[in-house]
Amino acid sequence: MRWGLLSTARINRRIEEAIAASPLCEVLAVASRDGGRASEYARSHGIPRAHAGYEALLADPDIEAVYVSLPNGLHPEWALRALQAGKHVLCEKPLSARAGEAASLFDAAERAGRLLSEGFMYRHHPQTRRLAELVRGGAIGSPRLIRASFSFPLGDPHDVRLSATLQGGALLDVGCYCVDAARLIAGEPVRVSGWRAIGGDGVDVRFAGTLEHLDGVIAQFDAGIRLAPRQGLEIVGDEASLHVPDPWLCNEPGIELRRGGRAEVIPVPGADPYLLEVEDIATAIRGGLSPLLGRTEAVSQARTIEALREAAETGTPVRIQPAAPPAMI
């Protein structure tokens, strides 16, 4: 599977390493709006081709799949243009912050006969699979409460994640992981509430949200891009609880089951979630299969994000039309 990188963003490094480790994939080209930057990036990263401009990369007939790692606000436009150019697309999260737009992108993928997937790499890690298995298998009884967090201190005042025009902010950058995990465990929420603190040029630098699910399950999360680094996921049932200290980056995987004052550490094998992600997509494309994360997941995620942003903006809880829950891994 010959890949093109649509931008020279820092996150590319993890995808490049994953593709280099896979016998199923190779990075063929990279593009930047600055031709000199593209050439220097290609030279220093050992990439055969450099394109001056994203359109030039999409016109390259040898590229089969594109990784979109542009700022959030450019994801929908360039995912669409890549699909229209006949490329399969892995778009870094969030694909879109609007459900209707996300659905239209998958409509475009279907018209083009191409695959589109949203890049939540943690969903491919064995830790996430094992966590879902434990919940599904009744390890904690019935889930009742979910708590999630993800934050880090963003120091550069010019970082694109502080730009409202480019759809920056804590919810879209890191809070989306917390939302996705709540949906994975508890299904789609029926009502959400949100609170935000504004910084940058008008983005939410801190965001807290509550998701109300069917069967009385409550999920609470907080996210920040100007907070101390922290991450965590806790799922509390009526019999026991599960704690995941490193749920999103998966650098030190492991799950703790707490029951009756005792804790049992459930080991999880290490793995590169980016490698699993690109191989999932390559296998799906070659075999005509569906990737782990497709239309249902991406549109439902965007619907929840859209509702949370509305709730934070208006200060009023937002009800979401009930939908079928996503299948647990």
Describe this structure in words.
- With 329 residues, the chain is an alpha/beta fold.
- The protein has two domains: 120 residues, Rossmann fold, CATH 3.40.50; 173 residues, Dihydrodipicolinate Reductase, domain 2 (2-Layer Sandwich), CATH 3.30.360.
- It has nine helices and 15 strands.
- The protein has a nine-stranded mixed beta sheet.
- Helix 1 packs across helix 8, helix 4 packs parallel to helix 5 and helix 5 runs antiparallel to helix 9.
- It is globular and about 60 Å long.
In round numbers, the mean pLDDT is 95
- Using only C-alpha atoms, the radius of gyration works out to 20 Å
Total number of domains: 2
Structural class: alpha/beta
Report the sheet with the most strands, covering strand number, pairing sense and barrel closure: 9 strands, mixed
- Specify the CATH class of the largest domain: Alpha Beta
Q: How would you spell out the order of helices and strands?
A: EHEHEHEHEHEHEHEEEEEEEHHE
Give the uncertain stretches in residue-range form.
325-329
State the separation between the terminal residues, measured CA to CA.
25 Å
Strand elements, count: 15
